[in-house]
């Protein structure tokens, strides 16, 4: 059930002189073990009462005045720069693409992600305990299982949960497809179907979620001097004690631990059946340690990496990115570091002996050290 400012959804029948408050019926069966999710907005939004889909929900949320104002506020906020290894730096947990982490505010002060272009960052926070889960979603097929993973350690199902959706941009173009004498409108791109899936899965539950930020798609799009669409915000950080979310970027040394190996997992996990429909497990909430869950790759990945490493920088962008014009300056450098690692380590068992996780504990100075 979708609630608006704590109330059931308002109907929006054309030509009606008054609006009736009604509930929006469940339109899809539950696809995951967790309880279905409702979205609660700060102010009213009108939706069709029957047959609501992810596309209809996204359209309504994107045009909602309160959510647009919230998106404008976060876009106008100064960007926080996160650096590791500095004396007095807050304890933080960094989430890479296709990863998630649930953190305890008693142990971790900041949790966040960056480098999102067509991806969408999801924040779910338990307001009673401060337990906060952040994911970096990149593909619709991981959304259902990924949200279930995020909810596992958040605690009381009856607690009020805040949700923030940040990232992605208007990378979709509208294409008219004709078949069987009929005209069909097709949205091409990556951000749009991902956002539709996230909202649609959330909408299925009776668990109430307060949607605080919807800075995605058109609400997160700018244009450069050449007319290329770009995301305004590609990274954010959550203050676990307060739940405040601000734009953020992370220095290379703060995207730790095990940066290159974690980047490699993003690529190879698509071919590893262990991770089908799931986010990559990375962080142990209870112990405040990183457990980089294993992923395997075929020996020919070294040959593939060697071939890719011969490409020019512009070719790397065009062949390896979902949004070549929107990537940060270090994108190509990161890709080449991944390929060099695969060339030097063609056997995945050298990285994950006996298919065991790589475990790192936090040191007194805020850095990470690997367990032997």
Shape: globular
How many H/I helical runs? 8
- CA radius of gyration is 21 Å
Estimate percent helicity. 10-25%
**Secondary structure: number of strands:** 21
Mean pLDDT: 84
β-sheet strand percentage: 25-35%
Major beta-sheet overview: 8 strands, mixed
Distance between the first and last residues' Cα: 49 Å
Order of helices and strands: EEEHHEEEEEEHEEEHEEEEEHEEHHHEE
- Structural category: alpha+beta
SSE blueprint:
Layout: E1 3-4, E2 7-8, E3 37-41, H1 54-62, H2 65-76, E4 80-82, E5 92-94, E6 100-103, E7 110-113, E8 120-126, E9 132-137, H3 143-151, E10 161-167, E11 173-179, E12 182-188, H4 191-203, E13 207-216, E14 221-223, E15 229-231, E16 236-239, E17 245-250, H5 259-268, E18 283-284, E19 289-292, H6 301-308, H7 313-320, H8 331-344, E20 358-362, E21 368-370
Parallel strand pairs: 1-3, 3-13, 4-17, 5-7, 10-13
Antiparallel strand pairs: 1-2, 6-9, 7-16, 8-9, 8-10, 11-12, 14-15, 16-17, 18-19, 19-20, 20-21
Helix pairs in contact: 1-4, 5-8, 6-8
How would you describe the overall organization of this protein?
- With 372 residues, the chain is an alpha+beta fold.
- 22% of the residues lie in helices and 26% in strands.
- It has 8 helices and 21 strands.
- The protein has helices at 54-62, 65-76, 143-151, 191-203, 259-268, 301-308, 313-320, 331-344, and strands at residues 3-4, 7-8, 37-41, 80-82, 92-94, 100-103, 110-113, 120-126, 132-137, 161-167, 173-179, 182-188, 207-216, 221-223, 229-231, 236-239, 245-250, 283-284, 289-292, 358-362, 368-370.
- The strands form 5 sheets. The protein has an 8-stranded mixed sheet, sandwiched between helices.
């Amino acid at each position: 059930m979708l609630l608006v400012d704590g109330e059931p959804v308002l109907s929006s029948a054309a030509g009606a002189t008054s609006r009736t408050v009604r509930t929006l019926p469940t339109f899809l069966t539950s696809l995951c073990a967790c309880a279905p999710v409702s979205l609660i907005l700060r102010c009213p939004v009108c939706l069709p009462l029957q047959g609501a889909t992810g596309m209809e929900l996204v359209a309504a949320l994107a045009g909602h005045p309160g959510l647009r104002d919230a998106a404008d506020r976060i876009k106008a906020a100064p960007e926080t720069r996160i650096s590791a290894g500095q004396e007095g730096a807050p304890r933080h947990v960094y989430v890479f693409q296709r990863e998630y982490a649930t953190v305890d505010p008693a142990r971790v002060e900041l949790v966040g992600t960056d480098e999102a272009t067509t991806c969408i960052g999801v924040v779910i926070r338990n307001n009673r305990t401060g337990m906060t889960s952040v994911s970096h979603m990149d593909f619709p097929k991981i959304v259902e299982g990924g949200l279930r993973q995020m909810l596992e350690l958040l605690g009381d199902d009856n607690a009020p949960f805040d949700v923030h959706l940040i990232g992605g941009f208007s990378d979709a173009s509208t294409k008219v497809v004709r078949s069987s004498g009929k005209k069909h409108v097709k949205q091409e791109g990556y951000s749009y179907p991902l956002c539709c899936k996230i909202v649609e899965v959330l909408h299925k539950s009776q668990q109430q979620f307060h949607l605080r930020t919807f800075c995605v798609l058109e609400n997160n799009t700018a244009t450069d001097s050449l007319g290329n669409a770009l995301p305004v915000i590609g990274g954010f950080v959550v203050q676990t004690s307060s739940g405040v979310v601000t734009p953020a970027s992370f220095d290379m040394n703060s995207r730790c631990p095990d940066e290159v190996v974690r980047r490699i997992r993003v690529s190879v996990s698509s071919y590893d059946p262990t991770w089908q429909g799931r986010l990559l497990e990375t962080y142990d909430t209870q112990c405040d340690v990183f457990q980089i869950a294993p992923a395997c790759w075929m020996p020919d990945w070294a040959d593939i990496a060697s071939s890719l490493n011969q490409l020019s920088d512009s070719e790397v962008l065009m062949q390896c990115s979902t949004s070549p014009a929107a990537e940060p300056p270090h994108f190509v450098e990161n890709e080449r570091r991944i390929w060099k690692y695969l060339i030097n380590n063609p056997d995945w068992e050298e990285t994950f002996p006996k298919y065991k996780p790589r475990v790192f504990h936090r040191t007194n100075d805020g850095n990470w050290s690997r367990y032997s």
